[in-house]
Amino acid sequence: MTSTQQDHVVLLVDNTFFENLPPWVTDNFTVTPGGYHDGQPSRNKLVLFADGSYLEFFNWYGKPPSLDDVHLPMRFWGPKAPGLIDFAITDTTRSAEESVGMVNERLSEEPGKDAGLGVKFGNPIAGSRKKADGVEIKWTVTRPEFSKGDKTPGDEHFVNGRIDVPFFCHDVTPRADRVPSHDESKTTHPCGATGIAACEILVPKYLLTEYAATYGKVLGSNLAPTDGQGAHVLDIGVPHGPTRSTVVVRAAETEHDVRRMQDRGIGFSDLVIAVKSDGTGGGTRRALGSTGIESTIWLEDLE
């Protein structure tokens, strides 16, 4: 069982959204103020879950930093269009250096190494922000570094930049300062949300095996059989409690999926949020809306 855990999901939003959250957010979730990031014009608001993970509404309130500024790892989000753009994983039992070192070892080992996709991870970079109460929280971010491998897709598959595997986020200050998930007033939601059930990753059908293998090495997870459904399910932990989460690497097979990948590129496509069971049985799943960002966020009734 992998020690890697879900950390948070990044949803990029514009100023209007950030300053006047739409009803699909406020009707379903309790939103906690985040703060302002150090060294760049960005801010966030959070939806905290009892499993220790969270959804981040990330907003550029000014011009994003240059892609050449290597000290600001969030710069890669600058060219992206609003929506689900990235997600972070962590390991609360190991340091950033140890976690990432283990991943890079797996990505350089046989069988398969990085499946020819050109993926490894760089060095941890310090990050921080100030909360509304003035408390400064600190962490390190370790992002993937990409190269051209034998199986790396063409640039047309990476709209506005390549983000097709997650990044690492490790706490420097106490995690409870960044993610106060023990505060029930912040983790109790109108929709009954309790945590992240799944992050779904959309990839070309001809590269499903390669991406699934690479994600397995990044997460330290064994691949589950596809059952002929065109997807691989990988197990991942959560920071708090006995529940588990998953990362689902699935092939773009429908017209909707192919169009989505053309518009937004390979990568994070859908977020599934676990909600408390109403007693009618698990597995019920519904999107928060039929169009827009909300159509990519699902609530799933899990037993």
The ordered string of helix (H) and strand (E) elements is EHHEEEEHEEEEEHHEHEEHEEE
Strand count, sense and barrel status of the largest sheet are: 8 strands, mixed, barrel
Helix count equals 7
Kindly provide the radius of gyration, computed on alpha-carbon positions and rounded to a whole number of angstroms.
18 Å
Task: Give, in spatial order, the strands making up the sheet with the most strands.
Answer: 1-4-3-2-7-8-10-5
Structural class call reads: alpha+beta
Question: How would you characterize the overall build of this protein?
Answer:
The structure is a single chain. The chain starts with a strand and ends with a strand. α3 runs antiparallel to α6 (208-219). Helix content is 17%, strand content 34%. The strands form three sheets. It has an eight-stranded mixed β-barrel with strand order 1-4-3-2-7-8-10-5. A six-stranded mixed beta sheet has the order 12-13-11-14-16-15. With 303 residues, it is an alpha+beta fold. The radius of gyration is 18 Å and the shape is globular. The chain contains seven helices and 16 strands.
